[in-house]
Amino acid sequence: MSDLLTSPIGQRRTLALRPRAAEMPPRADVAVVGAGLIGLSIAWRLAQAGRSVVVVERESVGSGASLAATGMLAPAAEHEPGSDLLLPLALESLQRWPAFRDALQAASGRTIDYREDGTLVIAIGRDEVERLRFRHDLQRRSGVAAEWLSGPEVRAREPLLRPNVTAGILCPLDAQVDPRLVMEALLRACEAAGVTIVERVAVDGLERQGGRFTGLRVGERTLSAETVILAAGAWSGETGLLPDDLALPVRPLKGQSLALRTTKRTGTLSRMVWTDAVHMAPKGDGHLIVGATVEDCGFRSGVTAGGLFALLEGARRVLPGIEEMEVDAVWSGFRPTSDDDAPIIEAAAPGLVVATGHHRNGYLLAPATADAVAALLGNGALPDFARGFGRARFAAQGEARGRAVA
């Protein structure tokens, strides 16, 4: 991706598999804006259903958030106050992941390092334990699988953690994948299904005739399509891409992450571990991913000393063994974040479908999002599990806040 370091330390988050060079055709059944995880998942599902699909990407495949992510499928660990709208969709999508995994691996001939090890959320000190208790109470009230653990019980499951870990919550149903492997598999699956992927071509605007969207405008060229799907991630809310009446409340939230190389000597974790400061995810290739900062700084790319220090210090605070691990890669990316951190999935106008704003839950929500959009194009309506995620909710939320202030 464009903001990776150019030395070998920054090259792990590139794709070994590249799509064939493709010219943008004059028309297709479906035009998808954005070749990230969400865009490619939708494109693959629609191509499987027999539609001709063209995906147009401003940079390279996965360059926004998809290759920068940790690959967490963690609705229980992620559940927090204010996420009641998101939780049913998150749980639904987690249930769809095994079938999505099997179909993707079969279509691509690639494995994606899908792991059902759960998430361990831990605390050190009284203040963190109190916050963890509050989180656990919320999980129980919401019916989320979560088990309270004492400090010794936490360390029995993860012996490499420091002895001062005081308590923890085990979320046994959470899972994870390796984003790089998922994106490589999606590229193969899309190619096998006949999807055309056009990289390094910026969409200048969407074509609209008589109130209906009819395609994309790229310079002096036009791609005509029966349906346009906007899945451009953090760039979905850019001025000029949509008319003012359809503007999306989506902005970038920068995140920096790093990959540590583990060895037999250093050991590694057996599952994802979360703290107040960082999350750590062991991968099948021997890496331990540490992420991620949250920076509301627009599209200011790059890796900073402050960001890396925060990640390393946050990990070292609970896992002393990282001092012996080599830093293998560092990177940053942009989460596509809506005003309430939940996705926007809807038929926004005739001929236009929006699927964006997934914040830090893109990997978790990919199967449900792809299935929902496929159902929308096939049946003319979103399935029940995906309803309620249109732009209209933001106006309702604004009115509710206004009444609360009054």
Which structural traits does this protein have?
406 residues; alpha/beta; FAD/NAD(P)-binding domain; D-Amino Acid Oxidase, Chain A, domain 2; 2 domains; 8-stranded mixed β-sheet; 9 helices; 18 strands; 30% helix; 25% strand; disordered N terminus
Structure characterization notes:
By secondary structure, the protein is an alpha/beta fold. The chain has two domains: 8-68 and 181-249 and 340-405, FAD/NAD(P)-binding domain; 116-175 and 252-338, D-Amino Acid Oxidase, subunit A, domain 2 (D-Amino Acid Oxidase, Chain A, domain 2). 30% of the residues lie in helices and 25% in strands. The strands form three sheets. Strands 1, 2, 8, 9, 10, 11, 17 and 18 form an eight-stranded mixed beta sheet that branches. Strands 5-6-4-13-14-15-12-16 form an eight-stranded mixed beta sheet. Strands 3-7 form a two-stranded antiparallel ribbon. Strand 9 and strand 10 form a beta hairpin. The relative contact order is 0.19.
What's a concise summary of this model?
The protein is of the alpha/beta class. It has helices at 37-48, 75-78, 86-108, 125-141, 151-157, 179-192, 305-316, 362-379, 392-405, and strands at residues 27-33, 53-56, 72-73, 119-123, 147-150, 167-171, 175-176, 196-198, 205-209, 212-218, 221-230, 250-261, 272-274, 279-282, 287-291, 326-338, 344-349, 352-356.
